[in-house]
Amino acid sequence: VVGALVGCGGDSAQADSGTGAGTSSSTTSSGTSTTTSTSTGIDNTGWVSLLERSWTIAGGAEGYECLRRTVKEDMYVSAFRSLSPLGTHHTIAAQVSADSNKPDGPYACDTQEIGHTMMFASGVGTDDLAFPEGIAVFIPKGTQLILNLHLFNTAKSELSGTSGTLVKTIAAADVKHQAAVVLAGTFQLLIGPQAKANFTGG
Predict the structure, then answer these.
(1) Do 163 and 149 contact (CB within 8 A), yes or no?
(2) DSSP 8-state code for residue 87
(3) Helices (H), 24-135
(4) Alpha-carbon distance 73 to 75, whole Å?
(5) Which residues are registered as beta bridge partners of 52?
(6) Segment holding 182, helix H or strand E
(7) What is the pTM of this model?
(8) What is the pLDDT of residues 127-180, one digit of tens each?
(9) 66 Cβ contact list (under 8 Å, min separation 6)
(10) Under 8 Å CB-to-CB from 98, ≥6 apart: which residues?
(11) Contact call for residues 155 and 59 (beta carbons, < 8 A)
């Protein structure tokens, strides 16, 4: 079992217009093999694109962009890798519950849209997450996935890139144990200035 906790300040919610604050974007091919990343220079041979999208962000801008993709076959993921070129603050890859599905494709979003079951989260400089032999995260056929990107550009000029999550997979017959991300606790953490509070529940 794998545990993860991700946080980020600010809430730059945008309308579902396909672009965030000062950003424009387009989707790229997911579920295909990938080699050297043109945006990071890292050799990604042997890795497969799970979720990724291209984007352009204006100088001094910040925003959130999402991408949804429905998986066409069962997948057993044995390793995750972040695709995080300059301009990427963090990424979240998650499964979406059936009652909150939206059409596949890219759109602008906010900090709250992170899916139902998180699989992988990364920030600047996050290492690969590789499981021991025989352990994998199961993604059933027909599951909708979501990629949430927090993008920012501290420069004055426009910045473009492609961000997302890459994976390695193994055959079902090679899986001995399934891994999962567990988020323990509550999201309802509201504490006033100079105040103390106790929270329980999940």
Answers:
(1) yes
(2) T
(3) none
(4) 6
(5) 164
(6) strand 181-182
(7) 0.74
(8) 999 999 999 999 999 999 999 999 999 999 999 999 999 999 999 999 999 998
(9) 106, 107, 108, 109, 113, 146, 147, 148, 149
(10) 144
(11) yes
